[in-house]
Amino acid sequence: MTDSVPAPLATRAPARRWAFANPLEIALVEWGPADGPPLILVHGGGDFARNFDGFAPLLADAGWRVVAWDQRGHGDSARAELYGWSAELRDLVGVLRAVPGGPHPVIGHSKGGVLALDVAAARPDLVRAVVAVDGFIRRVYPPRPPEETAERWLDLQRSGRTARAGTTAELAEGRQAANPRLDRAWIDYLVELGATPDADGRWSWKIDPAAFPLPPHAVTLEAGLQRLARVRCPLLALKAGIEEAIAGQPSAELLRDHLPPLGRLEVLDGLGHFAHVEDPQRIAALALSFLDDVLDDDPDPDRD
């Protein structure tokens, strides 16, 4: 684990790591008191759990035992032979079951928000509440024939499945270009934690590129909004005020029209897709206030 942590992380306690098989080995990270009520964090696509290093400690400071994990093919979790949305959902269900004291509140960013909402709709016994940070429906892609998706997957296998190999500076510059509002010190910190060198000294993110093939058919906007409307637990939808192509999310107007019965929407003026990194204090305050409002005085019903 790196020691060069940019402010305001330098005062934060280090995260703890553990793992379980689901059937892949999934690496989990947690912050806060071991006996605190659990709060589950779900990162976005192409990311890893330590992207929450500036955000999770603020939740832990409020007494929560915060648990996140590297999704399959990301970070320190195992790579899979095949990837798919159903497998990602099963992994989230596995994490929710592995952490005692459920059902749990869940905070998800981007793809992680969509995963949380889909599991909340399908398994309300596992999810008490959801905070979705600019992640409400699966990104809408143009239709692709199945053979094109299969050929891309085969190309990745033949290439050795190495993503964006180069120097650490090149990785940081690429991330900075995709996320221009993020502090460079933070991006350098993510490279230290989330990249690894090969035998030739070329660096790449610890992400399996085979986890990213586009689907063979489009997930329509209408279908995504219908799934959102089926969620029955309390939902706080935090919509980025600055629209970014990387997000692929519906407008605030469409979200308002399709919020579930216990849903509320807040537009984050001045913040983009990575709002929890751009202003972790603001997002943590909104999430904690929401959880205080919708959960019992004791967030963990099994605690004395």
Task: Describe it.
The protein is of the alpha/beta class and 304 residues long. The protein has a domain at 9-140 and 219-294: Alpha/Beta hydrolase fold, catalytic domain (Rossmann fold, 3-Layer(aba) Sandwich). Helices cover 34% and strands 18% of the residues. The strands form 2 sheets. Strands 1-2-4-3-5-6-9-10 form an 8-stranded mixed sheet, sandwiched between helices. A two-stranded antiparallel sheet has the order 7-8. A hairpin with a 5-residue loop joins strand 7 and strand 8 (203-205).
Question: What would you say about this model in short?
Answer:
The chain has helices at 56-61, 85-98, 111-122, 146-158, 168-178, 184-194, 221-229, 252-258, 275-278, 280-294; strands spanning 16-21, 25-31, 38-42, 65-69, 104-109, 127-133, 195-197, 203-205, 235-240, 263-268.
> Would you tell me which CATH topology of the domain at 9-140 and 219-294 applies?
Rossmann fold
The CATH homologous superfamily of the domain at 9-140 and 219-294 is called Alpha/Beta hydrolase fold, catalytic domain
Task: Provide the succession of SSEs.
Answer: EEEHEHEHEHHHEEHEHEHH
The strand line-up of the biggest sheet is 1-2-4-3-5-6-9-10
DSSP strand content? 15-25%
* Major sheet details: 8 strands, mixed
Key traits:
304 residues; alpha/beta; Rossmann fold; 8-stranded mixed beta sheet; two-stranded antiparallel ribbon; 10 helices; 10 strands; globular; disordered N terminus
